[in-house]
Specification:
Elements: H1 3-25, H2 29-54, H3 62-80, H4 91-102, H5 104-107, H6 112-131, H7 133-137, E1 138-140, E2 147-149, H8 152-175, E3 179-181, E4 185-189, H9 190-211, H10 222-250, H11 265-269, H12 272-288
Antiparallel strand pairs: 1-2, 3-4
Length: about 290
């Protein structure tokens, strides 16, 4: 067995375990909050390690930044589930951000502006988007009886991303000739992107049909599911490109090696960092009109 075959086996095993853990996490609200708290912490910890190692004159407070990000996720979950109904739940997060700014006065780091910029980039690029998964997962029941946990809606975002990646890879490998964005990601092609998008729309239509087939139809109808699939597809691709630009700026290939055969946490969740906010905005938009 050569190294290429071994890498394929390792990548496949990691992929199966990853998908299994993600699906299992969405089956229970507490499991989902715990899972994404860990994911948020690992992503920010990885991000701050990269910036401190590869960005010039940058020393982000890794521990406080990670704790703040995890707290933001838990705070949004507590607010969305009704455990805490007051803005006070955000006060510790705000204080931690203030601390990260004020502490630069005493650290003596060479470039405080770089430290502040990279610190806040981690919060806005990673912590905030991941915390919005709570908006997709928890909503008030139609009859006003309480908070309802929606397994399908947040899980579907990742299903669409996985389908898009698979469709883009297969189509791009077979038909890819025109590069999508060669300066940032030479491997991506327009043909692959279109192939992934078509497959996502088909899967979205199937999910929409099945979700509304029973006596308790989903909040979204089939056409709205297709629209959600399109949004996730477009913004997921942009999310992938944003992370590729981030890595190229730092001069690295992978964000880490925590996931054998798949790279780091940011490599695995890059698409979702743009797709989750897009999905939230889409859902609020269709309920307004």
């Amino acid at each position: 067995m050569n190294s290429k075959q071994k890498n394929l086996i390792v990548r496949s095993i990691t992929g199966v375990l990853y998908v299994s853990i993600m699906v299992a996490g969405f089956l229970n609200p507490r499991a989902m909050v715990l899972l994404f708290s860990v994911i948020t912490g690992l992503c920010v910890w990885e991000y701050t390690g990269l910036t401190n190692s590869y960005a010039e004159n940058v020393q982000v407070n890794r521990f406080i930044s990670t704790v703040a990000a995890v707290y933001l996720f838990v705070a949004v979950a507590a607010w969305r589930t009704g455990i805490v109904g007051h803005f006070i739940v955000m006060v510790p997060y705000i204080l931690s951000i203030v601390y990260l700014f004020v502490s630069e006065i005493y650290t003596g780091n060479k470039n405080a502006i770089n430290d502040w910029a990279y610190t806040m980039l981690g919060q806005f690029y990673i912590a905030l988007p991941l915390s919005l998964i709570n908006i997709l997962a928890f909503e008030m029941a139609p009859d006003g009886s309480g908070i309802r946990f929606d397994t399908l809606l947040p899980l579907s975002v990742f299903i669409f991303l996985w389908v898009n990646d698979t469709g883009a890879y297969c189509t791009g490998t077979l038909l890819g000739k025109h590069k999508l964005f060669p300066r940032i990601s030479p491997a991506k092609s327009w043909e692959g992107s279109f192939g992934g998008a078509v497959l996502v729309l088909v899967v979205a239509a199937i999910i929409g049909y099945l979700a509304n087939k029973s006596g308790d139809p989903h909040t979204l109808n089939t056409y709205q599911w297709i629209g959600l699939g399109a949004m996730v597809c477009v913004f997921g691709t942009w999310g992938d490109l944003v992370e590729s630009l981030f890595k190229r700026t730092l001069g690295i290939k992978d964000s880490g090696n925590i996931l054998p055969g798949h790279g780091g946490m940011l490599d695995r969740f890059d698409s979702s960092l743009m797709a989750i906010p897009a999905a939230v905005i889409y859902l609020y938009t269709i309920t307004m009109f």
